[in-house]
Design goal:
Largest sheet: 7 strands, mixed
Structural class: mainly beta
Number of helices: 0
Shape: elongated
Radius of gyration: 14 Å
Amino acid sequence: QVQLVESGGGLVQPGGSLRLSCAASGSIWSITAWGWYRQAPGKERELVATIRGSDTINYGDSVKGRFTISRDDAEKTVYLQMNSLKPEDTAVYYCKSDLTPRTGWHPTTYWGRGTQVTVSS
C-alpha cells in the first residue's frame, strides 16, 4: 500500500540547479527518516543525504555545500535541492524512507524507483 515516488529529475547544464521531490503515499503512522541515494552506471550506489527529525542531517562528501535535504511531514515529502551541479552528479537518484504504516507495528524501509538526473552541456 505504501509507495514512494520521485520527481524532478531531468537534463541540466553544469552549474545549474534541480529540485527533486519524493512523496510517500498510503496510510502512514510516522516517518522516522528519509534518505537520498544515487547510482551511476558501473558504480556502487552511494549516499547523498539523510535526515532524521529536524537536527540529524548527513551529506555525502561530494555534495556538501551544494545539496540541501529537507522534509515536509504534512505532505509526507522529502526534497533535495541541488545547486552548482557537475557532470559527475549524473546518476539515477533514489529516495528511501524508514516509516511505520498504520497497518503495521514496526518501522519498515521503502525505496522509490528512481529518477534520472543528467548534467551535461
